[in-house]
Amino acid sequence: MPPSDLLDLPAVLAAHAEADNLVLTVAEPHRALPALLERLEQRGAELARLTTRHASLEDVFVSLTGRHLRDE
After folding, report:
1. Measured between alpha carbons, how far is 62 from 37 in angstroms, rounded to an integer?
2. Which of 8, 31, 47, 58 has the largest count of CB atoms under 10 Å?
3. Cα separation of 34 and 19, whole Å?
């Protein structure tokens, strides 16, 4: 499934492919996850793995400036 197919899900802010994974940035996981699972079921796809994490300070910095802390 292309990442763009998930951008219309509730609370999804961004989606991109990374290696063999789809990476979603969400504002409200409690809204995004049920919608994601429903979309996968509708498409006949299985969830092989799910990992969540909170944004780090560097994630926020990159989001705001477009560059990493170590970029010069």
Report:
1. 29
2. 31
3. 24
Q: What is the CA radius of gyration of the chain?
A: 14
In this structure, the chain runs to a length of: 72
- The answer to whether the beta carbons of residues 6 and 39 sit under 8 Å apart is yes
Measured from the Cβ of residue 26, the count of other Cβ atoms closer than 10 Å reads 20
pLDDT tens digits, the chain, 72 residues: what are they? Answer: 899 999 999 999 999 999 999 999 999 999 999 999 999 999 999 999 999 988 888 888 887 888 876 755
Q: Say how far apart CA 67 and CA 65 lie, in whole Å.
A: 5
